[in-house]
Amino acid sequence: MKAIRRFTVRPVLPEPLRPLSDLARNLRWSWHAETRDLFQSVDPERWAASGGDPVRLLGSVPPARLADLATDRRFLRRLAAVAGDLNDYLTGERWYQAQPDELPAAIAYFSPEFGITAALPQYSGGLGILAGDHLKAASDLGVPLIGVGLLYRHGYFRQTLSRDGWQQEHYPVLDPHELPVVLLEEPDGTPAQVALALPGGRRLHARIWLAQVGRVPLLMLDSDVEENDLGERGVTDRLYGGGSEHRLLQEMLLGIGGVRAVRTYCRLTGHPAPEVFHTNEGHAGFLGLERIAELCAEGLDFDSALEAVRAGTVFTTHTPVPAGIDRFDRELVARHFGPDAELPRIDVERVLKLGMETYPGGEPNLFNMAVMGLRLAQRANGVSLLHGNVSREMFSGLWPGFDADEVPITSVTNGVHAPTWVAPEVFRLGARQIGVHRAEDALTVGGSDRWDAVADIPDQEIWELRRGLREQLVTEVRERLRASWRQRGAGTAELGWIDGVLDPDVLTIGFARRVPSYKRLTLMLRDRDRLMDLLLHPERPVQIVVAGKAHPADDGGKRLVQELVRFADDPRVRHRIVFLPDYGMGMAQKLYPGCDIWLNNPLRPLEACGTSGMKAALNGCLNLSVLDGWWDEWFQPDFGWAIPTADGVGTDPDHRDDIEAAALYDLLEQRVTPSFYERGGQSGLPDRWIEMVRQTLSLLGPKVLAGRMVREYVERLYLPAALAHRSMGPDAARELAEWKGRVRAAWPGVTVDHVETSAAAGAGGARYDAGVAGAGGARGARA
To answer: What Å distances lie between residue 281 and 284, 374, 381, 415, CA to CA?
Structure first.
């Protein structure tokens, strides 16, 4: 029977417990241990059953238990302390408030996905987790960010395995009323909405849900509203789902609708209007068009509005390969803009010109979202030093005549939000050394080059910490593996062997990420006999935990998953290597701390950054990685290993995989496992290994923080963008647009008549005198 309408019933909290609702609705609980501990104490069993989700917990606690807590003075004291701490966090001055006054009043940050917590499943992988960490770090620093995204009613898919190891996708239905979000409402109590015009006189309506991420509001647009027809209701159905038109509508809603949502939020709350708009990847690029349309409605012409919009826009690319960028057919885009659709006052040809690949090597009939993002932003960046180089090369066609190293794309290396990813046990060890408040500041604000206090932690404590975290992972893996085999159809009687899977005293390697081909999930299987020898070595065995999702449309990726699963199903090695389905934030928070080695073996240089290794490093896990992304930038032999690569132009791909897999086996056999298992003299501990853990924490820890990353964005990109935005008023925008127009018109008439060189005085080299002729006559130029 089809449900006519769905209702969510929740108990009313007694008055003394009302602060619990505020705590549950602010997602700071997802990275604040004291808040989570408070919710756990409400009902430990239901807390576990809820997956650590306070909203679900409060919806399931019996009224009798709530009545008891309402008179429990000890609990109420704890509640008051945690609620007071949240209030101080939300209202007190933080890093940003201590900076110079010229910083932007607000920044709007747009992303197609946000990974804040497993309780709000609106992410697929690294891009979303990075966006979530950016918001959390901005909150910790007091940066006045407004996040903008979509609310997907099915989120990303849940992954299970068939009996033969083939990935299967399931799309749960998410009820926003059961999520930690609230509707943004007008003063009269009606839901606030935005609308887009569609071809044929139709309209796409969307409500605005608000997730409060500490101090940062996250606006999420939802098209599943009664005002829409069935097709439009499904626009925000799935993350990265549907065909080209479906994706185009999602990205129009994110960009154009997102700007309108920001304007609505600021109108309703009094929040300062953003001076800077940050586009996290090309999906939200249409936001620039909406802002141009706003200025055109105020009397500016298109070219002047473009200059004004560019001044305050930042664009971040995460894509190292053209195939990873959204591109749409020219005619599809044209149909959705102009007089009969959205932005009717803007000439469709001007819209198309912003995104067309009108450069050597481009496809002139395709509209490229990253190209539009770059053309609409005065400031652009990659997400590691190496990725900045790759991006300058990849997009050099947009700046003809420039050498690749002169292309104006800089880099800000990604970071990760330490309070989210550091295990409580690791934090407590640090807090014992320097105190809780200093430890919290070190993980959030950062600013120091090294964490010297790590040097004072005794070897025995570090080794016991690592062993305890490994033991927790073993327990977690067995539970997840048992659940996976039941989903694959196995009976309880078949699963006794799982009690012997993994060993808390064996060197543990983690490999978990999305499964596109370039990340090479199965490189470890290149020589299976050699891998088996590593897994089953009598004195120095290794064990491997693998997880990852292939895109639903990527059968090649699914075959890689199946190949790995079938190897892990082999009774000879299944106690030493496991594949865990449904990789997500909940699993990751156990996986990173519990591993000794984090393995990363992409095809260099196709990893833009690769932040999973950063999260592992913050927990004292050592990296074993190809020199790609962030590892290329910060690798030192003191705290990890670099897998040699064979990335010469003429190397056959199969031969390259053979070479690099052999290098991986060599490292594991000759350097990694001996370091882990060799024991020192009197201590009986692996001294060299512990020292590498210590170096990882003290030297890498401060570098990989999202706090460091966001401070770089503020100082290097947001502040200059805000200053440019303020200087680019209507008159200045017109003047700049007119000057560019004159230069472009006259440029074909500019010629170099002659060049004379002469020896320069002193050691400075040569002097060049050139006669340059243009529309205004000949002039001499000197360099």
So the answer is: 7, 10, 10, 16
Report helix, strand and coil shares of the chain as percent, to nearest 5.
Answer: 50, 15, 35
3-state secondary structure of 96: helix
Could you give the strand order of the β-sheet that contains 751-759, starting from the edge strand earlier in sequence? 751-759, 766-774, 777-782
Q: List, for residues 280-318, the tens digit of each pLDDT value.
A: 999 999 999 999 999 999 999 999 999 999 999 999 999
In 3D, which of 433, 425, 426 has the Cα closest to residue 453?
433
pLDDT tens digits, 218-244: 999 999 999 999 999 999 999 988 899
> Tell me: the pLDDT tens digits for 659-705?
999 999 999 999 999 999 999 777 899 999 999 999 999 999 999 99
The CA–CA distances, whole Å, from 214 to 498, 510, 634 equal: 40, 31, 30
Closest CA to 59 of 7, 6, 8: 8
CA distances (Å), origin 345, targets 292, 338, 729: 10, 7, 21
- State the DSSP string of 417-478: -HHHHS-HHHHHHHHHHH-HHHHHHHHHT---S--GGGGGS-HHHHHHHHHHHHHHHHHHHH
SS3 for 657?
Answer: helix
Q: Look up residue 56 and give its two tokens.
A: 């679900």
431, two tokens: 């807090």
Beta carbons of 703 and 634 less than 8 angstroms apart = yes
Bridge partners, residue 194, by sequence: 206
Q: Which residues contact 15 (CB under 8 A, 6 or more apart)?
A: 70
The torsion angle over the Cα atoms of residues 128, 133, 139 and 141, rounded to 10 degrees, is: -140
Closest CA relative to residue 63, chosen from 8, 9, 7, 14: 14
Other Cβ atoms within 10 Å of 30 Cβ, number: 26
Q: CA–CA separation, 506 vs 467, rounded Å?
A: 9
Hey, what are 544's tokens? 């491997």
Instruction: Judge whether 204 and 37 are in contact, CB under 8 Å.
Output: no
Sequence length of the chain is 783
Rg, C-alpha atoms of the chain: 28
410 sits in the region (left: phi over 0; alpha: psi -120 to 50; else beta) called beta
β-bridge pairing 182-183 and 507-512: unpaired
Minimal CA–CA distance to 312: which of 260, 277, 354, 266?
Answer: 277
Query: Which burial class, exposed, middle or buried, applies to 453 when counting CB atoms under 10 A from its CB (0-12, 13-18, 19+)?
Result: middle
- Please write down the long-range contacts of 13-16, taking CB distance under 8 Å and 24 or more positions apart: 13/58, 13/66, 14/66, 14/67, 14/69, 14/70, 15/70, 16/70, 16/71, 16/76, 16/79
CA nearest 665: which of 542, 516, 517? 542
**Residues forming a β-bridge with 626:** 643
pTM score, whole prediction: 0.95
388 vs 410: CA distance, rounded Å: 6
